[in-house]
Amino acid sequence: MNKSKISVIVPAYNAENMIENCIQSILNQTYRNLEIVIVNDGSTDGTLDILKGLSNKDSRIKIVDIKNGGVSHARNTGIDIATGSYITFVDSDDTIEPDMYEYLINLIEKYSVDIAHCSYANIDKYGNRRVVGDTGREILQNHDEALKCLVSGRLFIGGLCNKLYKIKLFDDVRLDETIKFNEDILINYELFDKAKTSVYSDRALYDYYANDESATHSSDPVIANKQCMYVSELIYQKSKGKIYESDASKRLAYTAMVLYRAYLYSDSVSKAEKNELKHRLREFDANNLYVGKNEKINVYMMSHMPLFYKLFYKFYDKIRVKKLDPEQ
Predict the structure, then answer these.
(1) Which residues lie below 8 Å from residue 112, measured CB to CB, with a gap of 6+?
(2) What pTM, to 2 d.p., does this model score?
């Protein structure tokens, strides 16, 4: 019999086309001691009716109906009422493999860690499943090793949904509801900073479905990248004096480069604001924070030939292979 309860938090907003598959994948888990907290974030479609129908069939489902406040507010609402010993998250348009929670909780018990997490698979709009890694390696990490990976973007992603946490880590930690981009990386920095040890398994147990209507794909690039820059600034400040300070510096420099690219394509950013960020790019470059050949070329062209760069990058962006997954 499973002794420890896992609280699964699912924020749902206008998810009538996906929510049933998502919840069924949680209900079908081999680990049965679950509390499924579904936060209906002010949906205006049939999401709530579907959730009520599902809850009538399984007492493990708790529905919380709130006014629309965004995914971070919905997740925080779920955290506040969770009663399990462990906590995890699933997005309403994704699914999980049947043994995900049994496997992750066994890892926590096997290695006596505060966080266990796994790899994932990308599902495209045609239903094709492409796994990331999936070698089956189990990697035990101490505090500094895990944060170095998180900050540098190596080995694992900074999302919330492929991770199982001891609930004590959330005692004084909540998502920043003022931002919509990289908020998961920011809270994970805080959670991993509180964790003494964690274990990462390179098994793809979370299924991430591509969604062109998500906030990530549909928002203003300047606003989105300003928030990513804000998060990188915070992480850099928190990382000063740590062994991963250099990684945080490079992350900040890279984020600044991507933001400046968005500035070049925007008519709403002032010349003064562009010049200020360009000055920072040159400082980062002088401090050798752009180590890759592509980064160095991008920064040079942005700074010295912006009009040509805009034409060049528009063409290049169409043909390049976009890197969305972490370095394994």
Answers:
(1) 197
(2) 0.94
